[in-house]
Amino acid sequence: MLVLGIDTATPQVGTAVGGHEGVIGSAHAARGRRHAESLAPQIEFVTGQAGIELADVGAIAVDIGPGLFTGLRVGITTAKALAYALQVPMIGISSLDLLAFPARFSSRLIAATIDARRAEVFAAFYRQVPGGVQRITEPAVFTPDDLAGELLAQPDDVLMVGDGALRYGEMFSELEHVEIAERGQAYPSAASLVQLAHARALREEFVPHWEIEPLYLRKPDAEINWSTRESA
Known about the structure:
Blueprint: E1 2-7, E2 12-19, E3 22-30, H1 35-50, E4 57-65, H2 69-86, E5 90-94, H3 95-100, E6 109-117, E7 120-129, E8 132-135, E9 140-142, H4 144-152, E10 158-161, H5 163-167, H6 169-172, E11 178-180, H7 190-202, H8 221-231
Parallel strand pairs: 1-4, 4-5, 6-10, 10-11
Antiparallel strand pairs: 1-2, 2-3, 6-7, 7-8, 7-9
Helix pairs in contact: 1-2
């Protein structure tokens, strides 16, 4: 079964396609939150380079967040529309799971982080298990200070991945048992999305398109700003 993966939870837009032979095509681009303009051409490019038609796709996988409100809305809406048009099932995977997956060969505790803006980060902790990683905490919103406190409380060495760690790297790098991964691991990967989704597809862990919902963790900025104005 071929899986088409769509990732728009962060400033990077990613698309990939793959199946039992692995990822056969992928593309990623960061163009200043131009998710809506980038996604459709990227899907066309990736499927073309992979030598397949959309009709060949057997499932749609999408990053459900947490992440940027507008990016999530664009990606999930597009993924649902494709799943409905192609009459194929969907698989939703957290952006933090996608960040942690490439670090699965590390024996350290993995802290996956996404810059949530407004001086906050989305984060969750993971441990290595056979064949991948296992999330050991639920995704949550932290201030950098609160997350640093969580890291200090960990008895193990920690590998931090994601643009949240890079954004506040000066603070986190002061912690002796913490290492921050390189910039190449700053954003979730659509290739990782396809790999994880294909494993779920083999187990038939599908979700109807109407049940896929974004994981926002907090209200969008515009709604918060409006509530603040009303309170004032």
